[in-house]
Amino acid sequence: MEAVPLLTPHKMGKFDLSHRIVLAPLTRQRSYGNVPQAHAILYYSQRATQGGLLITEATGVSDTAQGYTDTPGIWTKEQVEAWKPIVDAVHKKGGVFFCQIWHVGRVSTYDFQPNGQAPISSTDKQIPRQPRHDGGFEEFSPPRRLKTDEIPKIVDDFRLAARNAIEAGFDGVEIHGAHGYLIEQFMKDSANDRTDEYGGSIENRCRFALEVVEAVVGEIGADRVGMRLSPFTDYVDCWDSNPEAVGLYMVQSLNKHNILYCHMIEPRMAIVQGRHQIPHRLLPLREAFRGTFVAAGGYDREEGNKVVDEGYTDLVAYGRLFLANPDLPKRFELSARLNKYDRITFYTSDPVVGYTDYPFLESSA
Ligand SMILES: Cc1cc2nc3c(=O)[nH]c(=O)nc-3n(C[C@H](O)[C@H](O)[C@H](O)COP(=O)(O)O)c2cc1C
Known about the structure:
Elements: E1 10-12, E2 15-17, E3 21-23, H1 39-46, E4 53-55, E5 59-60, H2 77-92, E6 96-102, E7 120-121, E8 130-131, E9 137-138, E10 144-145, H3 151-167, E11 172-177, H4 182-187, H5 202-205, H6 207-220, E12 225-229, H7 243-257, E13 261-265, E14 270-272, E15 275-277, H8 283-288, E16 292-296, H9 301-310, E17 315-318, H10 320-324, H11 328-334, H12 361-364
Helix pairs in contact: 1-2, 3-6, 6-7
Flavin mononucleotide binds near residues 57, 178, 179, 265 and 297.
């Protein structure tokens, strides 16, 4: 029999994972009015397996955290109650379920903000308009730079969101410190032009991120906390002149907090001889981190098996493939054909189409 490294067990803290195929956080924009909906019960439970790790779509920590239509939140009682049956359904299937907690910062517009106020950020530099997949452009409003004494309130929003996630039944939270959102707007030197203790040196730029980690760990315990980081990406005009150093400083600091896992995004893929090549630049960060390491970005079955086998990572998170293949672990086990994802319906609001109607293996055979 062919060995399938992705299907071997891994002990992540107190969680006994039965395989290494993680559902990556995937924004689906079907949580009307920022409240999770009943149709998410089916969506997440379709992707749940005994001992499999699932991470929710990015979930707002407060009413200033939003930048996209119909993304869920976890700051109100109504939202917490709405998450409960979704979490229950995943647990009934034996899944381990983490909530990704998120603040968009300046990746927003007046329309998404309370009273039409300016989005908050580390800076008042506006994101230049960004090209969209459909040929159009995404526009962002000029942000307002947080005053030093306003920052503890935002840290506290993350703490409360983590408490709410546990109240909703989640096994833990993943702090979203990736992709150009608020935490990265502090972390990276293209976006952080502050002169207070939250700007300048790497230590200062990572201060906000680590205050969030400390607050969340203090609230729910380090054994329930993961963090997603993307030092090498440059989304929404957020990049760093020394990504290796920022990544290493963060990982070493996360070790001090003893958190459960670190989830890293691979640098943009290069195409070599007609095939996507994952650059594998995360190795020094993986080697420095003491908890469970999760890699994401462009993996398929073959590449995932290879990196687990080599010890380059403990777990592999799959985004688009898991979105389109609710039974991805089963398909990987059987080396079965995969459904193709439909980019057009990634973010449309239909509660079924492109969401819960991707066929399972039995029905597509
Ligand atoms: C539709 C869609 C929504 C996404 N939403 C999120 C999100 O909410 N939070 C996040 O950290 N990453 C998000 N991502 C990034 C994915 O988690 C993942 O890192 C990315 O798709 C690369 O992995 P893949 O090549 O396996 O798809 C999203 C990606 C897609 C395609």
